[in-house]
Design goal:
Layout: E1 6-10, H1 23-33, E2 39-48, E3 53-55, H2 71-75, H3 84-96, E4 102-104, H4 111-120, E5 128-133, H5 138-149, E6 157-163, H6 172-175, H7 184-196, H8 200-204, H9 206-209, H10 213-216, H11 224-232, E7 240-243, E8 247-248, E9 252-253, E10 256-259
Parallel strand pairs: 1-6, 2-5, 2-6, 3-4
Antiparallel strand pairs: 1-10, 7-10, 8-9
Length: 266
């Protein structure tokens, strides 16, 4: 089976599900260019915990984990099947790496998962499981989680981190009606340069090294899925390719990254 790349997706606001902007077609094009996966493992910024949790629901529910949005958004469903056998495999691999996972047999799909999946695989016919992230343990831990699961790429599993390349909701009132936050472009350009240079140490230390890191990410959880996707590339050669999906509301950059790992060198 052909090795799959890993992905990092900026999923944006829940309203992206109804108003996808450039992200929708970019994800559809990406899915068309990939071999069809047998399953998806999605590390979402909206499932947080102190230790890794792996979802193992047979039929994961669509979680509407937000409030104050139009009624139409709450009617959306993403009825993809779960992957309980794969969940046990994922947990075993994380345990072998010393990462102390647990399995949740009931967890559904939060909007960090089902919003982008609506545009990647709109038929909801690819089995999906979710993986929690651990903000208190930092980027290197998230990278290690990805690295532990990297061999699954050779077995038809698409490993995806879903977050946002910039995520400062305090700026919603300042920029949602127009303009662009001045920190967005310097930050995303720094990330792109470091990814293209395979500078994993700098990216793991982004808090100290990236320009405007605190403004782009007051908290870590929306960038940590990027570190998961980097680790899941399975090689110090990331093979990073940026897909520009614009800047939403002036402060949410919607960058998508594809990591082909060592296969990119060939």
């Amino acid at each position: 089976m052909q090795s799959l790349p890993t992905l990092y997706i900026s999923h944006g606001s829940p309203m992206t599900a109804l108003q996808p902007g450039p992200m929708g077609p970019r994800l559809a094009e990406l899915a068309a260019a990939l071999p069809r996966p047998r399953a998806i493992v999605m590390a979402s910024a909206h499932w947080l915990g102190r230790a890794p949790m792996v979802s193992a629901a047979v039929r994961p529910e669509t979680i509407h984990d937000f409030g104050g949005f139009p009624d139409a958004l709450y009617q959306l469903q993403y009825p993809a099947p779960g992957a309980p056998e794969l969940a046990q495999d994922v947990a075993a691999r994380l345990a072998a790496a010393g990462l102390s996972p647990a399995v949740d047999p009931r967890r559904g799909l939060d909007h960090g998962a089902w919003v982008p999946l609506r545009f990647l695989y709109p038929q909801a016919d690819v089995p999906v499981l979710q993986l929690s992230i651990q903000p208190s343990l930092g980027p290197a831990h998230q990278w290690a989680m990805g690295r532990a699961l990297a061999p699954l790429r050779e077995d038809g599993v698409l490993l995806v981190g879903s977050g946002s390349i910039t995520h400062n909701l305090h700026d919603w009132r300042s920029y949602a009606q127009g303009g662009e936050a001045p920190y967005v472009r310097p930050f995303i350009e720094w990330v792109e340069r470091k990814l293209q240079a395979d500078d994993v140490p700098a990216l793991l230390d982004y808090r100290r090294q990236a320009p405007f890191a605190a403004q782009a990410h007051p908290t870590d959880e929306h960038l940590l899925p990027l570190h998961f996707a980097m680790g899941a590339a399975g090689s110090d050669r990331l093979g990073a390719r940026r897909i520009d999906a614009g800047i939403d509301m002036g402060f949410l950059a919607m960058d998508i990254y594809r990591f082909d790992g060592a296969a990119a060198a060939a």
